[in-house]
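Batch job 17 of 40 flagged for manual review because the log was empty.
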Amino acid sequence: MVDREDPNPTAPKGILIALSCTSASACIAVGASSNRFGDRVTLAEAWNGSTWVTQPTPNPPGAISSGLRGVSCTSTIACVAVGETQSNSGPRVTLAEAWNGSTWVTQPTPNPSGATSSSLLGVSCTSTTACTAVGESRTYSTTRVTLAEAWDGSVWTIQPTPNPPGATSTVLSGVSCTSTMACTAVGRYTNSSGRKATLAEAWDGTTWGIQATPSFPRFSFMNGVSCTSATACTAVGLRANSTGLLVTLAGAWNGSTWAVQPTPNPSEAILSFLSGVSCTSGSDCAAVGWGENSEALTLAEAWNGSAWAIRHTPSPPGATASFLSGVSCASAIACTAVGNTQVTLAEAWNGRTWAIQPTPNPPGATLSSLYNVACTTAIACTAVGFNINVSGPWTTLAEAWDGSAWAIEPTPNPPGGTFNVLSDVSCTSVTACTAVGRYSLGTMVTLAEAWDGQTWTIQPTPNPPGATNSVLSGVSCTTGTACTGVGASENDSGTTVTLAELWDGTLWTIQPTPNPPGATYSVLGGVSCTSAVACIAVGRYLDISYTEVTLAEVWNGSTWAVQPTPNPAGAVFSSLSDVSCTSATACTAVGEYVDSSGGAHTLAEAWNGSSWAIQLIPRPPGSSLSGVSCPSATACMSAGYFVSSWGTDVTLAERYAA
């Protein structure tokens, strides 16, 4: 039996997706929210230089789901927003609304003949009588094709758009127009071999034509574009690099060709993405997006005409997104989960319900997060993570629960280290805990700290010879003198390999670990040991077809060996984040997978001593499990997050009972 529980500090009411400003004191933002009946409805808010004010927006009669995805304003009294709407009995269709300075009014929009689903994702207006919107449409064969529509001041009309030969799915997600005869739209398409690639199309006043864009051997797409003239455009998005990691992408159009511009990525992120861009000239662009390690990180980059550079973006308190990243159970009716909602977050399970526990945050912190937690009893838990202060580097963070309150425990940081993070913790008693993570001295190196009941101290840890980056992501201790830490290391050739280290009570030493044949990227994220000679570690690797798949390795006291693990049918990405074992023949691992349509789902697998098998569990949309704890072979609790119907990340907990 599996139950799902997901308390959140604040229930999100809406999400803003697009923004257009005509001055520093005049902006319109649009998106979607949920009404009192639970229906998704359009949302618009206006900024007057001091406050945001919600503007009433119409929704088509009978609609059960409506949202706005793009907006363009030519003055404070002239804006056009686009998106989609759907009724109970009909397909999803295009939607456009216009602001005249006092009210929003729906504009009728056409839909391609025979389409089962159509949506407008971006819009650009050069005057009140000239707008271009782009998006996608699906036919009865479920194939996605490009869509463009033009507004002439009185009606919207469909403009024929091309699709790359052999494409099985094509989407235009952003558009920028400098005149009625010069527009550039960007997006992505899936070719006949299943690879997603960048797409750009140009409007010359008469027709749309495909522009050749740089080719990448793996996944890539462009999401936003900004043009200052017909011969000067900048587009942004993401791509998969040589090791399979998703990194930022920017490209420039000079009137004849698109060229890639090198872009930086946050050193702490394992995934980076640019979603929108705005340029005032060829030497002044700003792009925004996000990065991810075990949580979402804001990202902004600036172009000065010769190079892109990251702009510091502290995450403000009060964000609506909530994540649970780690969980520990002392019994089936006593579990603690931790994470963040821009500030630290802890929740407790009493066998019936989850309840939020107040947690402290370091003074002056702009972001505090707890990654994982270890409980030896219901009244003795230790959680670790990191803290960001505007005036200084990332610092380690530890908090302790004594049955009545959480309190911060001072933790050391390596001299000169930046991006100091504790990723996991394992406790064998209230006076014996070990935490592992990473810090930066120009490159990432491993970090371990020990708690003796009074203070935390740094334990020296080795790094593989020649490694350019090394991290420890998970740790499991069976006694105070027997701990195993796992993670990954990147060598100077750019290959990422598994890493395991052993603590014998005196020092940490590296244990040789295997990597699947042909893998160019292998990572261990979590580990669970039932004795000094029995450990299971889980993670993911990039196989020879450039697909990320699940990975498990077993320690028998002398060597590590790879165990075959299944992957969900049709998955294009699968990963295991954490594992909990009650014996050498009873383990549960959790993570996530992405299906062929791009949907994310929770993943759980069970080890019975001879093989791994996938466990069927609830799958809310956009869900991921990052932590698991099993107090017995028939009772497990896992924690993570999922994307709500408002598009916001909210906490998720799932309970397994055989």
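Reviewer: the log was empty due to a logging misconfiguration, but the result itself is present. The mean pLDDT is 86. Unflagging and moving on to job 18.
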